[in-house]
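Memo subject: From amino acid sequence to discrete backbone structure tokens
Keywords: amino acid chain, backbone geometry, structure tokens, three-dimensional fold.
Body of memo: The sequence and its backbone structure tokens, given next.
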Amino acid sequence: MHKIMYIPRRYEEKDRASILDHLRTHSFAILVSVMEGRPIGTHIPLLTVEEGDTLFLVGHISRGNEQKHALVEGATVLAIFPGPHAYVSPRWYTKMMVPTWNYLSVHAYGTVELMEGEALAAAVTAMVDHYEHGMPRPVHVSEIPEKSFQDDLRGIVGFRIRVTELQAVAKLSQNRDDESYHNVARELDQSGDASARDVAAEMRKRRDIS
């Protein structure tokens, strides 16, 4: 199968555990589908759920969102999970070259399965539990007035995506010599940008540098 996402071989992430960790850590995704010949996308959280060997992404959109017309049973969709990213200056290399951008991202392709009734309520409850976990005073759905919760359920279209293919990239200066790699990681780690520091952390995981 052709790689729809452009990934130079040296940057392709193949480790499934790392990919699943990315999906869970960077769960606010861009859901893309095609409607009347045009791509349409929505920014939404998607929960990663494993059932045996099958991977699902669970989420919902507002009934007021026109993308609902493209999210029909069996439709093929793409969920994009952007990760940390950062500009890399050529001054950080041992030899002057063109600047570039380091980043991590995962594309998940799959088919839509619609959810209603109790399945949808359970999915929303699971999503609330997931994001409330770690809060100082976690909220449970049972604390939300029943009428309000049911009204909200009627206002959304719930679905899960049965994932058929994962494509992931981790472009982290793998093609640079150790000194350049160290310099890039150090400069990014000293950045005031949290995303750049996250890229540096990933680089340190993948190559033994001080």
